[in-house]
Write a structure and sequence with these properties.
The complex is a heterodimer of chains A (439) and B (466).
Chain A lengths: L2 H26 L3 H22 L4 H25 L4 H26 L8 H6 L7 H20 L1 H9 L1 H6 L4 H23 L1 H16 L5 H26 L3 H19 L5 H30 L6 E3 H5 L6 H14 L2 E2 L7 E4 L1 H24 L19 H13 L13 H5 L6 H6 L1
Antiparallel strand pairs in A: 1-3, 2-3
Chain B lengths: L2 H13 L1 H29 L3 H22 L4 H25 L4 H23 L6 H6 L9 E4 L2 E4 H19 L1 H9 L1 H6 L4 H23 L1 H18 L3 H26 L3 H19 L5 H39 L12 E2 H8 L2 H13 L3 E3 L4 E4 L1 H24 L8 H7 L5 H10 L26
Antiparallel strand pairs in B: 1-2, 3-5, 4-5
Helix pairs in contact in B: 2-3, 2-7, 2-10, 2-11, 2-12, 3-4, 3-5, 3-10, 3-11, 4-5, 4-10, 7-10, 10-11, 11-12, 11-13, 12-13, 14-15, 14-16, 14-17, 15-16, 17-18, 17-19
The chains are: A mainly alpha (439), B mainly alpha (466).
């Protein structure tokens, strides 16, 4: 790897880390697209700076970009507060109008001046990553260190503002000012990143690593570090890909970031799609099993517990299930040995001895939960995390109370006896509950 | 036969270079902006304006991939690619949000930047021979008149052949799905309950946005498409309260942007599309400040009016109380009628300003009250309430004391906490509310502090508390 490639790698790596860190706050604050708006809004600032200075002067143009960006942010905030327009429209208006103005200005500059001294709009939009020089890296490193120091100094304040600005304001903190300071940090990153990766891709650097990091942790400190690592990682991978395949560097970096994001979204523990899919599937199975067991109890009760026999048709008529679902759940019950069928093709199935216990326990737990929720009467049910907690996992002090209430009310399924089908022996016809009642 | 000269004239006009380029540019802008503005209204109302942005950026990937596959720049493959990419962007944004639990704005940001990156990579691989990012980003509005075709005997910019059908499709779409669009935009839950699928409408709308974007992209460029979608619609949203008038105003704003933007560009020798966006932005800024109901200025004026009214009423109420206490002293001696203005019931100007609290408003209020016949001034410079002023003051003090009595009756407040809320609320109690309060309190004659509640005056002046 040559010296130039090393410079580019270093520059993009630091930029990625810095954008990841700053972007974390923007993403948490639900201001992800403000970075995008800022990047677009910076264009007229660059042009105005060029018009004033009269030549390509990096510090002047960065300053122009920074002020235009801050102006854009202020307008967004003002529109959000002062008009009936929502966030999306405010961001869209600033983004497109500023950018339109920038395009007009830069075309004006191009038409005014001849040849050489163009403001370099092309590189501004798409970036000219491969043209990075040592001084660029110094600029980027400086901005990164500046941002890092800022974040470390105001860590606690930023944390509260990022998660709960209302609380911060209630505590008497200058929430608005802190918010603006966060946005200024975003602006610094955007302005520094613009020449390197261009308008749209600098927005991506702010959003993507932070969003990816969000999947792995719930702690802000960890998320900041992770986002920085992911940002630097995607910058390195992207730069490498670009040097290997000759792709444009900026987009390669973004696509590397997108790849890391997708991996995070799919495979991270707890929050990942795969993980949630599996655990959701397990929960769904458990719930459908219990619902079916309770349905079996209902059917037995309709027959006043005189028969172990229930018709397959009745089971499948459960309103909570689709036909397919209840069929699957029933098959699983059969394989568990809760119910058995004398003849797989015939309509009736029998509840086994052990199956009866399972049925009773499911119904009993349901009734106990009913009692408990009734008792809590409006207090948040999440106290017990209903649905995720088994009754037996609750503290004995709570459960014993409800269990005795249930028992005294005479509705405890455990007290219920399931009789052998008496009519079965006498009358082979099956549906003979009336005869059973006579005896 | 008579048409021939007209055609000749038009032909001659179409050959004169200055007007032709301008008019053609303006017309192209007009048609494109109208289509964008119509769709923009629905996007703004649905709080999805940025989806227009996302779709228009993603379209780049669609165009690039379509070129990669088909190898031509002809219109159909480009169009299909853009449409698919636009819909894909909308779909992926929604999917990341729902399946991946990513915040909606983040998911949008991730999707469109990634698709844009794909587009740039593909294009950079192809080389700049056939596809021009410049054109996609800034458009070629200034040069539409160079690329013309013969249509029905006229030289028409090529862009028109794309934009006019698209505008027609958009208008047709809006007319056909008017009810559905309306319901799903304002109340998606209601729409679902009515059996209209909000999801289907969402994707139909997105395909319209993608179609319009790709058609307008060549002429005005991605960002200006976004501007023409969001800004006129947002301007109209500030100015109107009805969907149909919003659409009309939005199209009108888009039209103005097109005309002024093009002329401005011609004047300063710059990019017409960019200046169209700027003109739209200026219109929006004007609407923010000067909108009749919601504008910053009219709200400022309304607030000043309210302050002025409260100050005036405070002065009148203070003077009424003064007159009342003067009269009270007299009644104690003579048993005469309460609250008639006597010679000694005057109030100095300084006391009035003190009651007003705000110096400049107070001065203005005193002179205004004098002009409108509520106050008069005697030769010593003392101020008196006229008959009209007394009526007004009586009504205000009645409101004040009724409210105190009401608070005392219904809330457990200490006696010294009654005055302040009543002082604030007296300005908002009109005759109707007075009557209701009085009824609910069984027509009290005295307030909790033991002061008399003045009886309703028989004929109240008409320009009273609203």
């Amino acid at each position: 790897m040559g010296y130039n490639a090393l410079i580019v790698l270093l520059g993009t790596g630091i930029l990625g880390a810095c954008a990841g860190m700053v972007g974390t706050f923007a993403v948490l604050r639900q201001r992800a697209l403000v970075g995008d708006a800022l990047a677009h809004a910076a264009l007229p600032g660059v042009c105005v700076a060029f018009l004033i200075v009269g030549e390509r002067n990096l510090p002047a143009m960065l300053l122009g970009a920074f002020f235009a960006g801050i102006l854009g942010i202020s307008i967004i905030t003002g529109l959000r507060r002062g008009t009936r327009l929502k966030d999306d429209a405010a961001i869209g208006i600033v983004l497109s109008v500023f950018y339109g103005g920038g395009i007009a200005l830069s075309r004006f500059i191009q038409n005014q001046t001849t040849g050489g001294s163009r403001a370099g709009l092309e590189s501004y939009i798409l970036g000219k990553t491969s043209g990075m020089i040592t001084s660029d890296v110094y600029w980027i490193a400086g901005a990164a260190i500046f941002s890092l120091v800022f974040v470390l100094l105001f860590y606690k304040e930023f944390k509260v503002v990022a998660f709960d600005p209302g609380f911060a304001a209630g505590q008497g903190w200058p929430a608005f000012f802190l918010d603006l300071m966060l946005m200024a940090l975003v602006a610094v990153t955007v302005v520094i990143g613009l020449p390197a990766v261009g308008v749209i891709l600098v927005a991506a650097l702010l959003i993507i690593p932070a969003s990816a990091a969000r999947f792995w942790t719930d702690r802000l400190g960890v998320m900041l570090v992770l986002a920085a690592v992911i940002g630097a990682g995607s910058a390195s991978v992207g730069t490498w890909v670009s040097s290997q395949f000759g792709w444009a560097a900026g987009p390669s970096i973004v696509l590397a970031g997108t790849g890391l994001f997708l991996v995070s979204m799919m495979f991270s523990p707890q929050k990942g799609v795969v993980w949630r899919g599996i655990s959701g599937w397990g929960a769904h199975r458990r719930v459908s099993r219990e619902t079916l067991l309770r349905h079996v109890y209902d059917l037995l009760e309709q027959n006043e517990f005189r028969s172990k026999r229930i018709s397959r048709e009745a089971i499948q008529s459960d309103v909570y299930f689709s036909n397919q679902e209840s069929k699957g759940a029933l098959e699983r019950l059969e394989s568990e040995g809760v119910v058995m069928s004398e003849d797989p093709n015939a309509g009736d199935i029998l509840v086994t001895e052990s199956g009866w216990k399972a049925v009773v326990e499911a119904e009993r737990e349901h009734r106990l939960w009913g009692l408990a929720l009734q008792e809590m009467n409006g207090s948040p049910a999440s106290l017990f995390e209903v649905g995720n907690t088994a009754w037996s996992d609750l503290p004995v002090g709570i459960t014993a109370n409800f269990e005795s209430i249930l028992k005294e009310s005479g509705r405890d399924p455990r007290e219920q006896r399931l009789r052998n089908d008496v009519s079965e022996a006498v009358n082979a016809s099956g549906s003979s509950s009336r005869e059973g009642a006579d005896r | 036969m008579t048409l021939v000269p007209l055609e000749n004239v038009l032909f001659a006009v179409s050959r004169s270079t200055f007007w032709v380029t301008d008019i053609q540019t303006i017309l192209v802008g007009l048609v494109g902006n109208s289509a964008c503005a119509i769709l923009g209204c629905f996007l703004v109302l649905r709080r999805m304006s940025l989806l227009g942005d996302a779709v228009s950026h993603s379209v780049l990937a669609g165009i690039a991939v379509a070129f990669l596959i088909s190898g031509t720049t002809s219109i159909m493959p480009m169009f299909l690619g853009a449409l698919v990419a636009g819909l894909l962007a909308a779909f992926l944004t929604q999917t990341l949000h729902e399946v991946g639990n990513v915040a909606e704005d983040s998911s949008m940001g991730i999707v469109f930047t990634s698709m844009f990156a794909i587009g740039v990579v593909v294009i950079s691989q192809l080389g700049r021979v056939h596809l021009d990012t410049d054109c996609v980003l800034y458009g070629r509005l200034d040069t539409v008149s160079l690329d013309t075709v013969q249509f029905a005997g006229f030289l028409v910019p090529h862009a028109m052949l794309r934009l006019v059908p698209v505008l027609m499709i958009v208008v047709l779409f809006t007319v056909v799905f008017w009810k559905e669009l309306k319901v799903t935009s304002f109340d998606p839950e209601l729409a679902t309950a009515m059996g209209l699928s909000a999801v289907v409408m969402h994707y139909l709308l997105m395909s319209m946005v993608a179609t319009t974007t790709v058609a307008a992209l060549h002429s005005v460029g991605a960002i200006v498409v976004v501007a023409m979608i969001i800004v006129p619609a947002a301007t109209a949203h500030l100015l109107t309260d009805r969907l149909i008038s919003m659409l009309i105003v939005a199209v009108f704003c888009g039209g103005i942007s097109s005309v002024l933007g093009c002329l401005w560009a011609r004047w300063v020798n710059s990019n017409a599309a960019g200046l169209m966006a700027v003109v739209a932005g200026v219109q929006f800024g004007l609407a923010v400040v000067f909108a009749p109901k919601r504008g910053a200025l009219s709200q400022l004026i309304a607030r000043q009016k309210l302050i002025f009214r409260i100050v005036s009423e405070d002065i009148i109420a203070m003077m009424y109380r003064h007159a009342e206490s003067q009269a009270g002293e007299k009644t104690a001696k003579s048993g005469a009628e309460v609250a008639r203005p006597g010679d000694d019931a005057g109030v100095s100007r300084a006391d009035c300003l003190k009651a007003a609290g705000k110096r400049w408003y107070g001065k203005l209020a005193v002179s205004q009250l004098r002009r409108r016949g509520f106050l008069m001034e005697n030769s010593d410079g003392m101020l008196f309430l006229t008959e009209r002023g007394l009526d007004r003051g009586r009504s205000l003090v009645r409101s004040h004391r009724l409210w105190e009595a009401y608070l005392d009756e219904n809330f457990d407040l200490p006696a010294d906490h009654l005055h302040e809320p009543a002082e604030r609320f007296e300005h908002y109690i009109g005759p109707n509310l007075q009557e209701k309060l009085s009824q609910s309190l069984d027509r009290p004659s005295r307030d909790p502090h033991g002061r008399q509640i003045p009886v309703e005056s028989p004929d109240l002046p008409t320009d009273e508390t609203k």
